[in-house]
Amino acid sequence: MVERPTSRHDRQEHIADHVLREGSVSASQLAELFGVSLMTVHRDLDELERQGVVRKFRGGVSAQPSSVFESNVAYRLRTAKAEKTAIAHYARTMIEPGMAVMLDDSTTTLEVAGLLPEVTPLTIITNFLRVVNEASRQPGVRLIALGGEYYPTHDSFLGVPCMEAIESLRADVLFTSTSAASAGHAYHQEQEIVLVKRAMMRSANRKVLLMDHTKLGGTALHQLAPLSDFDDVVVDAGASADVVRAMRERRVNVHVAPLGTDRPDTD
Fold first, then answer.
1. Does 101 or 69 have the greater pLDDT score?
2. Of 8, 124, 130, 243, which has the fewest CB atoms closer than 10 Å, so is most exposed?
3. Which residues contact 73 (CB under 8 A, 6 or more apart)?
4. Surface-to-core class of residue 266, CB atoms within 10 Å of its CB (0-12 exposed, 13-18 middle, 19+ buried)
5. Closest by alpha carbon to 207, among 235, 242, 171, 241?
C-alpha cells in the first residue's frame, strides 16, 4: 500500500504518476493501492482522461500508445531515453551555425534542442512548448514560437493557426519524429498532428525523420508520408539490420546513430 494522499487533487497526481510509470494498470488495482472505492477511482480516471494524461479501457487505464491513440508527452519522455539521446547527438552533426532549424513536438527533438547551444547562432522554429521553454533560456538563439490551439496531451500548439504560421516560414532543416514506420511509410495516430507535420515538411529545405527502433515495424491510423519523402532518416543502433536493409532497398537514406558516447559516423 502506498502512502494515501489526503486530497482528490493529490490522489489524481499520484494515480497519474503510477500509471505513467507502469504504462497500464487496472482500476481495481488502483482502488486497492490508494484505499478508495472503485467508483472514486473511475471518477479520478475520467478527470485524468479529460486532461489527456491517460486513456481508459474496459477495466483499466493506460498511458501507452496504440494504433489509434498517441501517448501523453509525460509518458513519452520516460521511454527510450538512451536511444533518443543517441539519435539527437547524430542529428546535431547536421546543424551549422546560422541555420533556421524547425523542431516538431516530439520528445526526440526535445533532446536535439538541448544540444543546440553548441552551434549558435541559430533560429529555432517550434510548436512544442517544452522546446520553447528550453530555447528561450539559450543565448544566441532567435526563437519563433508557432501558435495555435494548445493540446495538453502533447504540450504543443496545433490547428489551422499553427499551419498558417508554418506556411509563412522557410526552414533550412526540419527535425521531426512520428509514432510508427513500416513498409516504407511513416504513420501517426492523430490527424491534427499529421497535418502540422506535413506543413512543416513543405516548409523545410531538408527533412530529417528521427525514430528510435521501438517505432519500427508498427503502424498507426493515419499515413504521414513515404519514408523516401525525407532527405534523411536517423535510427538508433537497436534497429535490426534487416529493417535498415529493407529501408535502404526502398531508397531511404538511413543513418544509424551509435548508442553510448561513441562519436557519430557521418560518412
1. 101
2. 8
3. 105, 107, 130, 153, 154, 155, 156
4. exposed
5. 171
Q: Please, how many CA atoms are within 13 Å of residue 234, restricted to the half-sphere of its CB?
A: 29
Q: In whole angstroms, how far apart are CA 38 and each of 26, 30, 267?
A: 10, 8, 58
Distance CA 113, CA 86 (A): 13
Alpha-carbon distance of 119 to 135, in angstroms, equals 13
CA separation for the pair 89, 234 (Å, rounded): 11
The residue assigned the cell 500500500 is: 1
Residue 267 has a pLDDT of 38
**79/162: higher pLDDT:** 162
Q: Is the pLDDT of residue 132 over 70?
A: yes
Beta pairing class for 60-62 and 55-57: antiparallel
**Residue 189 to residues 102, 157, 194, Cα–Cα distance (Å):** 22, 17, 8
Share of the chain above pLDDT 70, in %: 91
Distances (CA, A) of 242 to 114, 195, 250: 32, 31, 13
